[in-house]
Amino acid sequence: MAPNDITALGAAELSAAVHRRDVSCREVMSAYLDRIHARNPSLNAIVSLQEGDDVLAEADARDDELARGQSRGWMHGMPQAIKDLAETAGIRSTSGSRLFAELVPTSDALMVSRMKRAGCIVIGKTNVPEFGLGSHTFNDVFGTTANAYDSSRSAGGSSGGAAVALATRMLPVADGSDYMGSLRNPAAWNNVFGFRPSRGRVPSWPERDAFLGGLSTEGPMGRSVLDLALLLGTQAGEDVRVPWSLSGRLDELGSVERARATLDARTSLTGVRVGWLGDLDGHLAMEAGIIERCNDALSSLAGLGGDVEPTHVDVDLDRLWDAWMLWRHLLIAGNLGPLAADPAKRALIKPEVLWEVDRGRTLTGTQIAAASEVRTQYHTAITALLERFDVLAIPSAQVWPFDATLRWPAAIGDRQMDTYHRWMEVTLYATFAGLPAISVPVGFDDRGLPMGMQLIGRPRGDVDLLRIAHVYESTLGPLRIGEA
Q1: What is the rounded radius of gyration, in angstroms, for the C-alpha atoms of the chain?
Q2: Which of 153, 162, 220, 309 could make an SS bond with 176 (beta carbons 3.0 to 4.6 A apart)?
Q3: Quick one: pLDDT at residue 41?
Q4: How far, in Å, CA of 123 to CA of 391, rounded?
Q5: Catalytic positions, written as ranges
Q6: Are the CB atoms for 266 and 48 separated by under 8 Å?
């Protein structure tokens, strides 16, 4: 099989080809290394790339295992680059910070160990913003990651390197994490699928604080819903060290055959009620063309039998934003405050992070309790809305991919952005309620820049949401590959 044919395969197709022995793990690794060497220099999506001879030797060992009738799992022999917020044994784990530029962990994060058990070979990391904060992938360790469709534009973030590597076929499937849209925004901007699981579906370990958090979760990206579902099935599952991890595993996604059968169980959207949130009755500033592309996707949903209806969330959205910001400040200050307290280290931290930390230090218990009450009211309101609707739909981003030389958009139209992340407010509504959400491609503008739309599912309704997205995917045809 030719190298270009190998990297053109979806992850599920590649798994099947490897296990049929149609292609060897060495051939797979060689094809992907060739692709990385050709594409990555101009995109900067994969960092800390390991020596070719070393990963090829690992691929040979995987071939030997198959020759003995042994398979580690559906990812057997697949190259995987891990988002550079997760710890990887023997490979630099920098979090995009100069403070950790030379940190080499001795053990793997839980998600990494699960993917390794499924058979993947870790070949490096994918680039992130500093500490994963801000939906624009640039840092002082590795530089900026370029968009897969226009190298002068932002890739989004914080899983920007992962999305670009996936969109340009430098990886068969990609892992990431999502706080304020970090799987959904870069997926939208690079024309792939990005999934934020329900809170607790994919436990994260090690964690500095296992109790107070809950805004961030790890999760999958794919060029198809099937590929994404397979990786979710690998990442998911209870871990008793993580208090909020959901019990059991997603066994229905545990193999290519089971995952395909699970998704194919839904063949239409007849009877599926879709609540369209749009720009939240004008609350969200939106660049021109985004709502129109989402309307096209909604028409596709309706054509598949879905019942699409405009709706709104019955909460004070300004109070909700303030509560969200307080939670961010609190958690970021708790995590990064000790670093920022050291003047020498503080000088090496970007100003956006310091702003979050400094505001978090001033919070009182009364403020935290009030914000938690607002969050509870919001959760009650949106789960009530999801009793009327099977899914809620809202754009994945409020702006098209912007100039990569900017730190963040200062304005959307004539509306000034009052924080470095106000322009991505649209992503908080799934996060703050712990709901599953998937970003699905909805098309391009006249400059060839991609956009996505979020589908937000019911509490713990990850599999049902994937089935709906899988049916929608049938309207897209083959995804255009990034060739920036």
Answers
A1: 21
A2: 162
A3: 98
A4: 37
A5: 83, 158, 182
A6: no
